[in-house]
Amino acid sequence: MLRVLASFTWKDYVRTIVDIAIVAYLFYQVFVLIRGTRAVQLLKGIGILFVLLQVTNFLELYTVNWLLGAVSEMLIIAIPVVFAPEIRRALEQIGRGSLFTRSLFLGPDVTPEQVVEEVTDAVFKLSKDKVGALIVIQRDVGLEEHMDEAVALDSLVSSELLQNIFAKNSPLHDGAAIIRGGRIAAAACFLPTTQESVALELGSRHRAALGITQVSDAIAVTVSEETGTVSLAIGGRLLRGLDAKTLNEKLMELLPQKQPVNQLFHRRSSK
Fold first, then answer.
1. pTM for this predicted structure
2. Are 166 and 173 in contact (CB under 8 A)?
3. Are 262 and 107 in contact (CB under 8 A)?
4. What is the CATH superfamily name and number for domain 112-269?
5. DSSP H or E stretch at residue 189
6. Residues of the chain with CATH 3.40.1700.10
7. What tens digit of pLDDT does each residue of 112-167 get?
8. Distances from the Cα of 18 to the Cαs of 11, 126, 151, in angstroms?
9. Which of 221, 194, 197 is nearest to 208 (CA)?
10. Helix axes 10-34, 39-58, angle to 10 degrees
11. Which of 11-15, 87-91, 173-177 has the least mean pLDDT?
């Protein structure tokens, strides 16, 4: 090894450094691309599966190892299907020339209490005027794919802004507002609706709230345009007819309390 290194010229060193830097930067861009999507959770699952394969092989648990190996082989076929949204997004960004112009930044510290207070205040002011609304709060599972065609905002959460988003004459009225890391990431987001049977009085907002909480761990708050009723969706279940105190308590239970909710990084196009 030392002999090989000794035979290197300065050009070889420069070439090696550039080679490693390019690979590192590509890995970084892939990481930025999948941050905020379900792909992160899927990659964690693949990593755990790989570790289990090594452990069962070491412990000579041949049947379990064979079963895990069969699952791994199926993943080779499944991965392109599972990661189709991320692959499509990457190709679109390459076509727009924006794949390498995105950066990471941290927003100001915003506590869960502040987010809950602003959301609760906005929701019940909208409820009083019977203005329909759908507010989704991202937790661990990213919702980036649902924001691709939406209106990017990247604004601090405030009651006034949420009320303006869902005002009846606002162009952002239809669709959902997604809160990520203590900021309103996007508005006019169209979400997958539940495929399960629901009560006839539940409209498209409630169906979307149930749908997004079935495919992610997000929290969805809805305001009925017909009755002004406030509902909370979590895990594909809908809690209806909430008052301000109950909504506040439920949101505080569901949001992490150990650190500011803006610990997530956000992405935006550099100007």
1. 0.64
2. yes
3. yes
4. DNA integrity scanning protein, DisA, N-terminal domain (3.40.1700.10)
5. strand 183-189
6. 112-269
7. 889 999 999 999 999 999 999 999 999 888 788 888 789 989 899 999 999 999 99
8. 11, 56, 38
9. 194
10. 110
11. 87-91
